[in-house]
Design a protein that fits this description.
The strands form four sheets. Strands 13, 14, 15, 16, 17, 18, 19 and 20 form an eight-stranded mixed β-sheet that branches. Strands 7-10-9-8-11-12 form a six-stranded mixed β-sheet. Strands 2-1-3 form a three-stranded antiparallel β-sheet. A hairpin with a 2-residue loop joins strand 14 and strand 15. Helix 5 packs antiparallel against helix 10 and helix 14 packs parallel to helix 15. The protein is 46% helix and 19% strand. By secondary structure, it is an alpha+beta fold.
Length: 625
């Protein structure tokens, strides 16, 4: 390809050192991030021998307008930096894990005299025991709830040794959800033994635990302590019920992840099985579309890098279906992350190969189900748009629908959401959030006017700017216009929306989504007429989904701003806690609520917190309880 002067100049100064390269388009957007052992050699490959490149790479190269690089000391640093930058910028041509998240763990604070059990997404080397990761946050919380019913451990974070004899039992004791170690209702040894039994269960030793409990139950029966025996009987039944869903792997390897995939017609499903203590505790799957068959190895490599950059716990072994690029480098990175050696295994035969084949079968089944579900969703969406067109008497199906909702509480922290559905499916990348700037008090009409004006005036300005730069206006972020606008409200919201559209020169149909007395979707208002749509129709389901999504997106943003404001005011009221300490506390604990539950020793672990500051924070929250 013919190099632009800018690219040619950049290629001349590339160093023969390891690092990360960053590709950008004409708008300055980062479109690809990669790592290299030798930057000069790797980056130049993109602009030479382009005939042999895969279609995806050719497309990317055609959009490269500028490039930058960051030199690192070694390949390992380049790998870590690449993972962090991809997670931050989510470039278009890097693979994207759509559920990029930290996974939930069950934490038992065995480093405390009186341990607690709760769900966390952060793993620290603090002496506590962590079990997981689990793919389902709901299932993890349910497991913890069941464990707490079986073993009523405390949920508070008070210093029991200091408060012993100074407080009374709380409500949790009287409803049977805590053994009240704070008042001596259970001895320290018995309480810790109860927590050890929880660990036994989570480590997969259910049979051993059941045998211990049965022996205790029989002893209670012999002693005529029938209530205690019945309590243990119920615990045994609960353990049997929640442990039966775990599949046992007949392997000596207790802690490993198994990664396999199935590829068909440019669609790829990667499946990960989590094996802990020789048991399959959970699994997760990821779908990718538009994958070239010759590009699977690169995709699998990027997947492994991104997946383990997002996960806290690294197992002792990672079993992979096929060899990936830089297997040893990634293994060294995972070993450093885990703190002990991590084996990267690509089995050719034996039991691990059988495991890989089993995971591949699951990936194949998942991909086939995904396609079937996708076909059904597309058909339903097509029918829904057709019905909507008929109900509103539109000339064409509304391919792009934008919906707006206002959220505030008594006029404070007023925000608005703009959500987008294209071809009947949500398009999250086009969602926008607005903080209301010109309206004070609970005035939804004026707020809606501001939002619609900002959205469309900005689109005009962006289109003019792109056009003056010789760029197709359709390449802009706000320059794609809707075929239909929906507002969460009635005639008043519709009228103010139409008024603004007329003033800025747009003629777009606007309808209102109305709810009944129970706050459920009822129908639409369009051209001053209320249109009742059958509840069993595809159109009704689409409208309900749009209305709920617009409301959810607005509420979440409003809640975020409100919590941010509350957090700031709470921590700012503590003497000796300035901006630096406040930010480090929030970064370390994740929320003001978590800070309020921390004891002095935990607070002292924050880098900027000395003993005096930690006591001030602890005493502040202790005094407010």
């Amino acid at each position: 390809m013919e190099l632009t002067p800018r690219i040619a100049e950049r290629l001349k100064v590339l160093p023969a050192q390891p690092g990360v390269y960053i590709m950008k388009d004409e708008q300055g957007n980062i479109i690809y991030i990669g790592k290299a052992k030798i930057l000069k050699n790797r980056v130049r490959q993109y602009f030479h021998n382009t005939k042999s490149q895969l279609p995806k790479v050719k497309s990317m190269v055609n959009h490269i307008y500028d490039l930058e690089y960051i030199i690192t000391d070694n390949e390992m640093e380049a790998l870590i930096l690449e993972c962090n930058l991809i997670k931050k910028y989510r470039p278009k041509y890097n693979i994207s894990l759509k559920d990029d998240k930290s996974y939930p763990y069950i934490k038992i604070t065995m480093n405390e005299d009186y341990p607690r059990v709760f769900v966390t997404r952060k793993v620290s080397h603090d002496g506590a025991k962590y079990f997981g990761p689990y793919a389902s946050a709901y299932a993890t919380k349910e497991t913890v709830n069941i464990l707490k019913r079986m073993y009523p451990v405390r949920t508070c974070n008070i210093n029991i040794e200091d408060r012993m004899g100074k407080i009374r039992e709380c409500l949790y004791y009287y409803i049977g959800e805590c053994k009240a170690p704070c008042t001596g209702r259970i001895s320290k040894d018995d309480y810790v033994a109860m927590c050890r039994e929880i660990c036994e269960f989570l480590e997969g030793h259910q049979d051993r635990l059941i045998a211990i409990l049965q022996e205790k139950m029989e002893n209670h029966v012999k002693s005529l302590e029938f209530e205690k025996a019945m309590e243990l009987r119920d615990q045994i039944e609960s353990i049997k019920k929640i442990s039966c869903g775990q599949k046992v792997f007949k392997t000596r390897e207790k802690d490993m992840d198994i990664i396999s995939y199935h590829f068909s017609d440019k669609d790829l499903c990667i499946q990960v099985f989590f094996v802990r203590e020789g048991k399959l505790v959970d699994r997760e799957h990821f779908f990718f579309s538009g994958i070239d068959g010759e590009n699977i190895k690169e995709t699998l490599t990027q997947f492994v890098e991104q997946f383990y950059s997002n996960i806290s716990h690294v197992p002792a072994e990672v079993v992979i279906q096929e060899e990936i690029d830089e297997l040893k480098l990634i293994g060294d990175w995972l070993s450093a992350k885990r703190g002990t050696n991590v084996r990267m295994t690509v089995p050719k035969r034996g039991e691990k190969k059988d495991f890989v084949n089993m995971v591949e079968k699951n990936a194949k089944d998942m991909l086939e189900n995904y396609r079937e579900r996708l076909r059904n969703d597309m058909q339903s969406s097509k029918e829904a748009l057709g019905e909507l067109m008929d109900y509103l008497e539109l000339s064409d199906k509304p391919y792009r629908i934008e919906a707006y909702d206002i959220s505030n509480i008594q006029g404070t922290n007023s925000v608005a959401s703009m959500i987008v559905f294209e071809n009947g499916q949500s398009k999250n990348s086009d969602y926008r959030r607005f903080k209301i700037k010109t309206v004070t008090g609970p005035n939804d009409y004026s707020s809606m006017m501001e939002v619609i004006e900002r959205r469309f005036v900005h689109s005009i300005e962006e289109a003019e700017k792109l056009k003056s730069e010789g760029i197709d206006p359709e390449e802009g972020k706000f320059t794609t216009f809707p075929d239909l606008i929906m507002v969460d409200g009635g005639r008043g919201q519709i009228n103010v929306c139409r008024q603004v559209l007329n003033e800025v020169g747009f003629d777009i149909p606007v309808c209102g989504m109305v709810k009944d007395d129970r706050h459920r979707t009822r129908g639409l208002i369009y051209n001053n007429k209320e249109i009742n749509i059958p509840m069993n129709s595809n159109a009704f389901r689409l409208i309900t989904a749009i209305q709920n999504e617009a409301h959810r997106f607005a509420i979440n943003y409003h809640r975020y701003l409100r919590q941010k404001q509350e957090v700031k005011s709470v921590l700012d009221d503590i003497s000796g806690i300035g901006k630096t300490r406040r930010n480090e506390l929030l970064k370390y604990f994740g929320s003001a609520e978590a800070v309020s539950k921390a004891n002095v020793e935990e607070l002292k672990k924050v880098p900027s917190m000395n003993a005096k500051a930690a006591e001030q924070v602890y005493n502040y929250f202790a005094g407010s309880k």
